[in-house]
Design a protein that fits this description.
The protein contains 13 helices and 13 strands. The protein is α/β, with parallel strands linked by helices and 323 residues long. It has a domain of 194 residues: P-loop containing nucleotide triphosphate hydrolases (Rossmann fold). Helix 8 links the parallel strand 8 and strand 9. Helix 4 crosses helix 5 and helix 7 packs parallel to helix 8. The chain is globular. The two termini are 35 Å apart. The structure holds adenosine-5'-triphosphate (ATP) and magnesium ion. The site of magnesium ion (MG) has 3 residues, from helix 1.
C-alpha cells in the first residue's frame, strides 16, 4: 500500500472554540491506483488532502491516527522531512492554477528549478527535462511556452503547467484538489485525460478531489463519499455509482440529471449541510435523510462492509442486508 490513512481526526481552534472537521478518516491508495473523494462543499475533502501534506496551518490539530506513506508515518516525521517529500514524492495540483505558479518567473525556469531540486541533474539538463515535461503535458510549442510568463497563458495552459510541475519529480502520489473546476468543459476533459495518461505512464497513484460525479466516473477506480467530515460510503466506483448504499450518495446521484455528462456539477440536495459545531449524537446525515428513524438520530453508525469491498455508514443499509 502506498498511502494508508488510519483514523485521522482534525480539529480547528478559533476564537469561538474548536470544531472537529474530520472524524476518524481512514483511506488507502495502492500503487498506480486512482482514488476519488466526492462530497458537498464543506464536507472536509480539502482538509483531508492538506492533512496528508501537513499543510493545515497552526490552528489545526491532527489527533489520533496515522498517515503511512510507503510505511513512514507522515504525522511523526520532522518538518524538514515532510517538506522534502512535498513536490518530490507527493505532487500537488490545486484548483486555482495561478497560485501554484510564480508570477514573475518564466515557465521554463520554474520547471527547471523544480527538476533541479528533485533530481541530481545539471542546470542545462534540467532545462532540457523542463521542455520535455511541457511536451509530456501536450504543449505543442514547448520551447516557446518555456520562455513565457504565467500571465501570458490561458487558464487551461496554466493548469497543464501546474500538472507538469507536480509531475516533474516524478512523484509516487499526485494529489489533485478540484483540478478542473476553474476550467471550461472541453479543457476539463483534456486535463482529466492528461492525469489518466500520466498515471498510466509513470504508475503514479492519484488522489482526486471533486464535486463532480462525472470526473469520478471517468477517472477513478475507487470512490469515497464524504459528509460532515466523515466517510459515509466507499467502494469501487462502479459499485458506488451503480449501486449506492448510503442515502446521501443516493441523494447526490438522484440530483444528477445525467451521469454520463461530465459537465454536470453536483446539484444541491434538500436540507442544510451539517453545522460542524453541533455534531449530532447519532448519524450525521439523519437530519436530511428521508429514511432515518429514531435509532439513527441517537446512535452513530460505523462504516461496515455491506457488500465485498463496499462500505457504508448507515443503520438502514445494514438492516436491509440482514432482513
Ligand atoms: N484553516 C481553517 N480554519 C478553520 N476552519 C477551516 C479551515 N479550513 C477548513 N475549515 C473548515 O473545515 C470544513 C471542511 O472544509 P474543506 O475545505 O475541507 O471542505 P471541502 O469539502 O474541500 O469543500 P469545497 O468543496 O468547498 O472545497 C469547513 O467547515 C471549513 O470551513
Ligand atoms: Mg475543497
Amino acid at each position: 500500500m502506498l498511502l494508508e490513512m488510519k483514523d485521522v481526526s482534525v480539529e480547528f481552534t478559533g476564537m469561538r472554540g474548536s470544531v472537529q472537521v474530520l472524524k476518524n478518516i481512514s483511506l488507502n491508495i495502492s500503487k498506480g491506483e486512482i482514488l476519488g473523494i466526492v462530497g458537498e462543499s464543506g464536507s472536509g475533502k480539502s482538509v483531508t488532502a492538506l492533512s496528508i501534506l501537513r499543510l493545515l496551518g497552526n490552528n489545526a490539530k491532527t489527533s489520533n491516527g496515522e498517515i503511512l506513506f510507503n510505511g513512514t508515518d507522515l504525522l511523526k516525521i520532522r518538518t524538514k522531512e515532510i517538506q522534502a517529500l512535498r513536490g518530490k514524492k507527493i505532487g500537488m495540483v490545486f484548483q486555482e492554477p495561478m497560485t501554484a505558479l510564480h508570477p514573475t518567473m518564466k515557465i521554463g525556469r520554474q520547471l527547471a528549478e523544480v527538476i533541479e531540486r528533485h533530481r541530481a541533474v545539471s542546470k542545462k539538463a534540467a532545462f532540457r527535462l523542463a521542455v520535455q515535461a511541457l511536451k509530456d503535458v501536450h504543449i505543442h510549442d514547448p520551447e516557446l511556452v518555456a520562455a513565457k510568463y504565467p500571465f501570458e497563458l490561458s487558464g487551461g495552459m496554466r493548469q497543464r503547467i501546474v500538472i507538469a510541475l507536480a509531475m516533474a519529480a516524478p512523484p509516487d502520489l499526485l494529489i489533485a484538489d478540484e483540478p478542473t473546476t476553474a476550467l471550461d468543459v472541453t479543457i476539463q476533459a483534456e486535463i482529466l485525460n492528461l492525469i489518466k495518461e500520466l498515471n498510466n505512464k509513470n504508475d503514479t497513484s492519484v488522489l482526486i478531489i471533486t464535486h463532480d460525479m462525472g470526473v469520478i466516473s471517468q477517472l477513478c477506480q475507487r470512490t469515497l463519499v464524504m459528509y460532515g467530515g466523515e466517510i459515509v460510503e466507499s467502494g469501487s466506483t462502479n459499485g458506488v455509482l451503480k449501486n449506492p448504499k448510503h442515502p446521501y450518495t443516493k441523494a447526490l446521484l438522484n440530483a444528477l440529471p445525467d451521469l454520463a455528462d461530465p459537465a454536470q456539477p453536483l446539484q444541491a440536495i434538500p436540507g442544510e449541510i451539517m453545522d460542524l459545531r453541533h455534531r449530532p449524537n447519532g448519524c450525521s446525515f439523519a437530519a436530511r435523510c428521508s429514511i432515518a428513524g429514531e435509532y439513527c438520530r441517537t446512535h452513530q453508525p460505523a462504516l461496515v462492509e455491506i457488500l465485498p469491498q463496499h462500505y457504508t455508514a448507515c443503520w438502514k443499509g445494514e438492516k436491509e442486508q440482514n432482513d
